[in-house]
UniProtKB/TrEMBL annotation:
It comes from Latimeria chalumnae (Coelacanth). This is HAT C-terminal dimerisation domain-containing protein. Residues 1-33 are annotated as: Disordered. Residues 18-32 have a biased composition (Polar residues). Residues 1-10 have a biased composition (Basic residues).
Length: 423
């Protein structure tokens, strides 16, 4: 790795970022040092693929915002702001769309820029708020409960051995408790499920064992409470509603075109589970709505309806199958959700499909692109981030490399170069 940030990018990659539209994502990974690290990732279209890459770290000091650090990084690599079609910020005010000064500063640089919020964080924060209200009403905090169970048995072979004995006594297979980390959104469901699987054994353990530690007393009280298992079953029932959408948003391939559909489905399922029939408000006056028998269809409408199946088929597929080679479809196909009856769901990576469509020519004699404007528009849409999963992975590497034992790494040189090599 090099020690100067300017030497990390090859001329080819730097040129791509100067010329092609892209999405930028940034996040403040630390707030305890003098210098604040703002890792910047780039999402761009390269070689018929959407790639997410680490660019550099925008260093800010004091009250300077993440936008200022990003602007300095852009100037360093000669990247114009008008090439930044969207800007993602992992910021509470951005996600809440409240007191959003970062958005206004980015708009000053490029008034057409699209400020992207992080739906994974929004869903997580909303669910956490609801869970906090539930904990306040019931006195049972699921996060604290799962963490206490994990910490009680962690790094204690003696306690694990005693739990295994209780599992054998209760005719259950011993399984290690799953650690729950509040910043890992999917771990709470797995931790809850594991506790429910071992609930009888855990209940026997804490009712028979003795201990004066505060954590032990809290767990003993919780497991002796008859309603605790009911609370866990309630959370186990509603978790898939949130985690399934979260998993879809964490796909590596670009699925921005599915976000609206998936969020609408999520909201519909949420209302179906949590909104009672009494809370549904009756619609407006229906007297002005004609019955089907009184609706008159004109001749043009009737003619269009008779041609409906033919027109629908034409709208659904405007190109022949053979116009796109089989190897393109094969490379772009990925399988998901293999069911018990061995049925499979197939999806296409649309960046590969549109990468090929933009290379198609008018004909063998005319070398002009067949879809010049449509291809550019599709690539712009695919550059928009559907979540922050890839960016969070890069942000996590920052914390792993700059630790309390390696706190002397230069932010502008060594650490940034290490991240460039790793990513």
């Amino acid at each position: 790795p090099t020690r100067k940030g300017k030497q990390k990018q090859s001329p080819k990659k730097e040129g791509e970022q100067n010329e092609s539209p892209q999405n930028k994502s940034t996040n403040g990974s630390n707030d305890t040092e003098i210098q604040k690290m703002n890792p910047i990732t780039v999402k761009l279209f390269d070689a018929n693929h959407i790639h997410h890459r680490f660019l550099d770290k925008g260093i800010t000091v004091g009250k300077h915002s993440a936008t200022a650090g990003t602007d300095c990084c852009f100037q360093q690599y000669n990247i114009p702001w008008y090439n930044c079609v969207s800007f993602s910020l992992d910021n509470t005010f951005v996600n809440m769309d409240k007191h959003n000064s970062l958005m206004s500063r980015a708009k000053e640089k490029n008034k057409h820029i699209c400020i992207r919020r992080y739906p994974c964080h929004i869903i997580h924060n909303t669910a956490s708020k609801a869970s906090a209200e539930f904990a306040q009403e019931t006195g049972s905090d699921l996060d604290d409960f799962c963490i206490d169970v994990s910490y009680w048995f962690a790094k204690s072979m003696k306690r694990k051995a005693r739990l295994e004995e209780y599992c054998q006594l209760c005719n259950q297979n011993y399984k290690t408790d799953i650690d729950h980390v509040s910043t890992r959104w999917l771990s709470l469901e797995m931790a809850t499920y594991r506790i429910l699987k071992l609930f009888v054994s855990l209940e026997s353990y804490f009712s028979c064992e003795t201990g004066s530690q505060t954590r032990f007393q809290h767990l003993k009280k919780a497991f002796l409470c008859s309603i605790t298992e009911v609370y866990l079953m309630f959370f186990q029932l509603i978790f898939p509603l949130f985690t399934n959408l979260n998993k879809r948003l964490q796909r590596e391939e670009p699925v921005i075109y599915l976000v609206y559909q998936e969020v609408q489905k999520f909201l519909k399922n949420t209302l179906g589970k949590f909104v009672t029939a009494e809370a549904i408000v009756q619609g407006g006056n229906l007297d002005k709505q004609l019955d089907d028998a009184h609706i008159f269809n004109g001749s043009i409408t009737r003619a269009m309806l008779t041609k409906g199946p033919i027109l629908c088929a034409e709208d659904y597929q405007t190109m022949r199958d053979e116009e796109i080679p089989n190897h393109v479809y094969k490379e772009a196909t990925f399988v998901e959700n293999v069911k018990a009856d061995r049925q499979k769901k197939e999806f296409y990576c649309m960046d590969l499909i549109w990468g090929y469509l933009t290379t198609m020519k008018e004909s063998a004699l005319i070398s002009l692109p067949r879809f010049p404007y449509l291809g550019k528009m599709a690539k712009l849409i695919l550059r928009l981030p559907h979540s922050n999963a890839n960016a969070e992975w890069v942000f996590g590497l920052v914390c792993q490399n700059k630790t309390a034992f390696c706190d002397s790494l230069s932010l502008e040189g060594t650490l940034s170069s290490l991240l460039t090599v790793k990513v």
